[in-house]
Design a protein that fits this description.
10 strands; alpha/beta; 386 residues; globular; eight-stranded parallel beta sheet
């Protein structure tokens, strides 16, 4: 198989999970701007997600967020997804919106609040059983705002205890993905602030616990691709939450702020053997001023383009330059791949998959956007509750 054929084959197997919450009204903590045609139920979110998969061919699963996507019958929700040509993906927990969690959830100083948080996580595992989901994704807003507010080490002990109880509940083929965020909403200490803390807890828990890298959850200048390479080397990279940031946790369309960084990350994924089902490629974004479905399609396409460029790196030439200590040539090999226009290649891939070569144009022609605006009248639109 030629290198080009191998790249095409890899791109055809790519899977990017889209987040249910991105189809609803979402935005900053200051204001969420409602849009016409936004889903009112988890079932309607799946209808929209199915359209993204229909036109991109590489978005076959949808992540749920509990309680935002709570339903009475999860088997019916899973069946609805399959009827639309997609499946339910990761189950995301929510331990940050209740008033009880003002001082933390799983790390809270009060045992009763910790119990509430852990019970919610156990409920999420029950939902995984009902939906067939394999991944439980955990992000905690826990932390402190002032020195002396709480015992830093004690909070780590509480975190470890809670995670261990949930870990023991996981079944065969299920895993826990622990996310980190260096600040916000906790401004002095955050209980899972970096990949090292997440890695340490996952290492202690066992093989079913892995780290999630959210590309927007880092301090300016952080070398995210180094983190990715290290976690892959240790077998502890469970997945990504792809988005983009200019300043903090902006949750913009992936690749919007720094497409070169996205390429560098995807190169390390390809280089480290992470382009596989064991690493979940998920979007985690909000679309506050842009139309939901087209923005998600654009994000999926941006991931595809970064992946295609990463697959274009001439590994043999790069290895030779590195061994020779030829700094300029090694960098040139990487830059040649990044500067390659892979859009014609991706159009070919889509045509070979029986898809329209231009997903956004195909979506706009489909009339789905106009249809949902006309049909989704009344009821309560789904959103973040901000």
């Amino acid at each position: 198989m030629t290198e080009l054929a191998a790249a095409k084959a890899a791109l055809k197997t790519q899977a990017v999970e889209t987040p249910s919450w991105a189809y609803g009204n979402s935005g900053t903590r200051f204001k969420v701007f409602a849009q016409e045609g936004v889903p009112r139920t988890p079932f309607e979110k799946l209808d929209d997600a199915a359209k993204v998969h229909e036109f991109t061919g590489v978005a076959p699963t949808v992540a749920l967020h509990i309680p935002w996507d709570k339903v009475d019958d999860y088997a019916a929700l899973a069946k609805h997804a399959e009827q639309r040509g997609v499946k339910l993906g990761a189950i995301n927990s929510n331990t940050f919106q209740d008033d009880d969690y003002k001082l933390g959830s799983i790390c809270h100083p009060e045992a009763s609040v910790r119990r509430k948080a852990v019970d919610h996580l156990l409920e999420c595992v029950d939902i995984m059983d009902a939906t067939g989901s394999a991944d439980l994704k955990l992000w905690f807003a826990d932390g402190t705002n002032y020195p002396g507010q709480d015992d830093i080490r004690g909070r780590q002990d509480r975190l470890a205890e809670g995670l261990a109880e949930v870990y023991e509940r996981l079944g065969d083929g299920q895993r826990m993905l622990l996310e980190y965020k260096f600040f916000e909403p906790a401004f002095y200490t955050t209980d899972v602030p970096d990949w090292g803390t997440a890695y340490a807890h996952c290492l202690k828990l066992g093989p079913k616990a892995q780290v999630v890298v959210d590309t927007g959850h880092h301090a300016p200048g952080t070398n995210i691709e180094f983190i990715v390479a290290t976690l892959l080397r240790e077998g502890k990279l469970g997945g990504f939450d792809f988005n983009s940031r200019f300043y903090a946790d902006d949750d913009l369309m992936v690749g919007a702020a720094d497409p070169f960084q996205l390429f560098r990350i995807m190169y390390e994924v390809v280089r480290g053997g992470g382009f596989s089902p064991e690493v979940a490629f998920m979007l985690d974004q909000c679309h506050n001023i842009e139309a939901k479905i087209p923005a998600i399609i654009r994000s999926v396409m941006n991931v595809q383009e970064a992946t295609a460029k990463a697959l274009m790196v001439d590994g043999d030439a790069l290895d030779a330059a590195q061994r020779a200590g030829d700094v300029l040539e090694a960098n040139a090999v990487v830059m040649d791949a990044y500067n390659t226009d892979v859009r014609p290649l991706l159009r070919e891939v889509r045509e070979e998959m029986g898809l329209d070569p231009e997903p956004l144009a195909a979506y706009r022609r489909s009339g789905w956007g106009e249809r949902i605006v006309a049909e989704r009248v009344g009821g309560q639109q789904a959103g973040w509750g901000a």
